Amino acid sequence: MRAVMIDAVRSQPEVRDVPQPSAPVGGVVVRVMATGMCRSDWHAWAGHDDIAFPHVPGHELAGVVAEVGPDVTRWQVGDRVTVPFVCGCGRCEWCRSGNAQVCPDQEQPGFTHWGSFAEHVALHAADTNLVALPAAIDFATAASLGCRFATAFRALVGRARVAEGEWVTVVGAGGVGLSAVMIARAVGARVVAVDRNPEALAVAADLGAEHTLLADGRDVPAAVGRLTDGGSHVAVDAVGSEQTCADAILSLRRRGRLAQVGLLPPVEGHPRVPMARVIAWELDLLGSHGMSAADYPPMMELIRSGALQPQRLVERTIGLEEAAALLPGFDGATVAGMTIIDPTR
Ligand SMILES: [Zn+2]
Ligand SMILES: [Zn+2]
Description:
- This protein is α/β, with parallel strands linked by helices.
- It has helices spanning 39-45, 93-96, 126-129, 139-143, 145-159, 175-186, 198-206, 220-227, 242-250, 275-280, 296-304, 320-326; strands at residues 2-5, 14-17, 28-37, 60-68, 80-82, 120-123, 131-132, 167-171, 190-195, 211-214, 232-237, 252-260, 284-287, 314-318, 338-341.
- 28% of the residues lie in helices and 23% in strands.
- α5 crosses α6.
- The protein starts with a strand and ends with a strand.
- 51% of the residues are buried.
């Protein structure tokens, strides 16, 4: 099969013919029809994760089951499926309680094994992790869900429990941030979007952000405080840096909730977090790590009904060759919205 191969940390990725994976016990092989490119793929390329090279990145995917391994009961060849980026083991107490997103024995395609920037990908514990794709949802839309959209959904709905009429500050208007804007609006919350890129802010406004703030060195928390009469009820750091994490926390009103979604890779050192404010104002800091397949049904129903339209976040679709060329510069990409790869091109 054709796949985007990375031979070593920070080497130029290349499209190459490699052996097709076979289905593990309890798992399947999926023929990839669409796969999203995300900053996490760039982190993997840059050596920020513990990854064995040579490596195939890619963890946001949708496709068709091509091979079913032993001990799989729920899936058959030909099923249209997607999958969260965290695949739980299916056996531990967290998986059995529907929280595979924190499974201690989790697999992540594109990190713990070869991922979906390829014509085929192996997925583990299929009965726990696969999500059936309704005919009404196309592959590119589904691929946009597995990482950033589902993460934003869980952060706002499952973790921060955002309510109608509340203010939500979204720091970072990339894939996950724009998803958060759309989801916050769908539940009736009011949004302040913050980003360094005016184009990303224009998209956030299109998606229903009531206010946009250009992070051009200004005091973001003070500006949010003025716009929301004392700070937002919920803030999402969708970037993952010391600055954006602090801005999100300091933008909260008293007793507000932070959903930390942006990854803070340890290579950059542990971030300084304004804990004095967290204590004095009784702020809740909520980590959010993807979303398990068990929590997909309410989100899929909102997509099927049209209340959520993740396809609006798909900015462009490219082939494997373009993906290989693009990956090393992806941390600096200024594309507003999501880049989807079609490996069948
Ligand atoms: Zn991702
Ligand atoms: Zn588990």
